[in-house]
Amino acid sequence: MRLITFFSKNSEAMIASLGQHIALVLISVGLGMVIAIPLGILLTRHKKAAPTVLALAGTVQTIPGLVMLGFALIFMGIGTLPALAVLTIYSILPILRNTYTGITEVLPSYKDAAKGIGMTKSQVLFKVELPLALPTIVSGIRISAVYIVSWATLAGMIGAGGLGDWIWTGLATYNTDYILAGAIPSAILAFAFSALIGFLQKLITPRALRRNA
User: Fold this and answer.
1) Cβ contacts of 95 within 8 Å, gap of 6 or more
2) What interhelical angle do 80-104 and 50-61 show, nearest 10?
């Protein structure tokens, strides 16, 4: 009952923080897509470099978020910009890995058939490889979005706003109401992103691939 009262009194501020949190997620994942998808395509054309690049991206992913935010704070100050830079870096690996995997797993017979009817390399990419790889790529975007929802709560430490503000305020004041005011919407948001992108993934997956799965 006390928690409901707290949520009711602070509903406007919580909605504003939720909006900030969603913006952080959408912008960072969007930037991650802009970087990771072209890079993933490039790696499928230079497969010798792929293990090194993927290993490097995986190594960066293992660095704790607080450490990355600390470096961003030193070089970029406080606010939204350093938070977006760190979140974008973290969003890259799942999308990059799935883009590379999705395209490399397209059967050679499909590409050979496309070349046989006179398609250029770019036409094969955009009309055959990417459409067939799209469900796998979207799966990577789904993983990335769910991760970033949770990691974005750290952004409150450097003044980027979002639901993390409530969590860190609660930890600083030993007030569980504030902690739950940030944690509960974050969890719901993660489930919502996962369900929405999962639904989109099903829509764009060809029926034949769904049957095989």
Assistant:
1) 32, 33, 36, 37, 40, 137, 140, 141, 144
2) 140
Rounded to the nearest 5 percent, the helix, strand and coil shares of the chain are 85, 0, 15
- Residues 141/29, Cβ–Cβ less than 8 Å: yes
For residue 161, give both structure tokens.
């706003």
Question: For residue 92, which of 58, 64, 68, 125 has the smallest C-alpha distance?
Answer: 58
Single pTM value for the model:
0.89
> Do residues 72 and 86 make contact, with C-beta atoms less than 8 angstroms apart?
yes
Structural domains for the chain:
8-106+133-207 (1.10.3720.10)
DSSP letters along 111-124, please?
HHHHHHTT--HHHH
- Reported as a single tens digit per residue, the pLDDT across 146-169 is 999 988 988 888 878 889 899 988
Nearest Cα residue to 129 out of 102, 93, 95: 102
Distance of CA 154 to the CA centre of its chain: 15
